[in-house]
Design a protein that fits this description.
- The chain has 21 helices and twelve strands.
- By secondary structure, it is α/β, with parallel strands linked by helices.
- Strands 6-9-10-3-11-12 form a six-stranded mixed beta sheet, with helices on both faces. A four-stranded antiparallel beta sheet has the order 2-1-4-5, with helices on one face. It has a two-stranded antiparallel sheet with strand order 7-8.
- A hairpin with a 2-residue loop joins strand 4 and strand 5.
- Helix 9 packs antiparallel against helix 10.
Amino acid sequence: MKNLLKYLKNYRKELFLGPLFKLLEAIFELIVPLVMAEIIDKGIGNNDKKYILLMSGLIVLLGVCGLGFALTCQYFASKCAYGFGTELREALYKHINKLSYESIDKMGTSSLVNRLTNDSNTVQNGVNMFIRLATRCPFLVIGSTVMAVMIDAKLALIFFVVAPLIAGIIFFIMNKTVPMYKNTQKKLDRAALLTRENLEGTRVIRAFSRQQEEIDEFNNAVNDIAESSVAVGKISAILNPFSFMIMNLGIVAVLYFGGVRIDTGNLTQGELTAFVNYMTQILLALIVLANLIVIFTKAFASAKRINEIFELQPEKNSEFAGDNNSENIIEFKNVSFRYSGAGDNSLKNISFTLKKGQTLGIIGGTGSGKSTLASLIPCFYPANEGEILIDGINVNNYDKDYLRKKISIVPQKAVLFSGSLRENMKWRDENASDEDIIFALKTAQAWEFVEKMPDGLDTFISQGGKNLSGGQKQRISIARAMVGNPDILILDDSTSALDYATDLKLRKALKTDMSGTTVIMISQRTTSLKDADKIIVMEDGEAVGTGTNDELLENCEIYREIYNSQMNAKEENK
């Protein structure tokens, strides 16, 4: 938790004034039993109605002042806690966006979302309750005990018996429930994961008629949470009855021994009433303190989970942001790569060069390492061995923002965001004009359907592009990557939803409209790659063949098998 305290630095005033006003409220609360004792002993004892009304007015005044102090404390507590929560979430979100792919894969998207929302809210609530109650509860316990001792030291011995008994019950309950709260947070991660998977994969679930199975799995997850919470609740339920039982027995003891001391003249009736009030205040303060400990326990558990994110190292970055006039725009030198936790390398000893304006095709079976190779170029993952050079500079030495502005990548799954088509098209270049956008749409063979839309570039794109077909999403994603004329364009199997005719038009347009851009095209179709300047054939993470289409047909058996399995007479004539 202490690592998160730096986000309170802008709220030092609220952090001081909030507890101060709560302390003043507690002081006024401790005075009330003394005033009541005076009313009983002097007002009621002497039948002095004027004195009773005067002191009753004082109690009302103390109550009003206490309310004012409580509201003021609440204001400062809310300002501090919600300000702290805002800064924490902003810092956390910023840090997550700086994490490497490897770190994000390690933590998991659902867990990151849960920690950013649920855990940050829990920590925020902990700060709020700390300001409101952390000073009040201990002060009331100590203050009530001191006031009782001042009234009658011998009778106050009952307090020193009752308070430890109640504290013991609280400690027992906390010792049992703290681990259970931590376990509940982990189960919340599981429920969040299932929710995300089910909402994103709803079409697949319905296609396989798996609705009931997924509902059952989700129900099991939330039932686990419910069972864990109920188990905690059952243990926590012991607190109130046992505490009140001990308190009531303590009050009985106070009344019994207090009555004896009244008979001997060592205590007045009003002082005995004050004693009972202080006993009640101690109990209620201890119960609030127990609830406060629960809140703090949750807050500390959530703070630990948040710190686990901050402990993840952000993506390594350098300050170099320039060009080196190298003949080769991309060069791989004996590159090998292994995912974190994997037993074997996903890429093994890959070497090739690519000149500016050339087209590189990458083909191979599922899991052969095609997408992994592409993800190393913009340095989404660092190579374990070898070097990757862009314009003669190692990718690890680049400023990552500068490097990725040189490179546009269209992933396998087309990702669009809710908003207008124009807003989506400006992701790479926010200053792009409509002419630039339309040019990119024409090159990507998307303008033919965009211009027919009633709203054109102002067409609203729903979340994930759900109001577009698969081919339309792919073409818009390709067009978005072309805006701003990147030096390198990576198409990671991003034409799979296009028919052969549209695919051919796209490749011809790329040659004509983006002749200065180096294109890396990953595809399962040999027709999409046969005009490439160089083709790499991947198999089990290794480059088993490199060359042009004709060279590979002659020298690479794997490529020849793929080619012959796909080609027919009509495709051969294209």
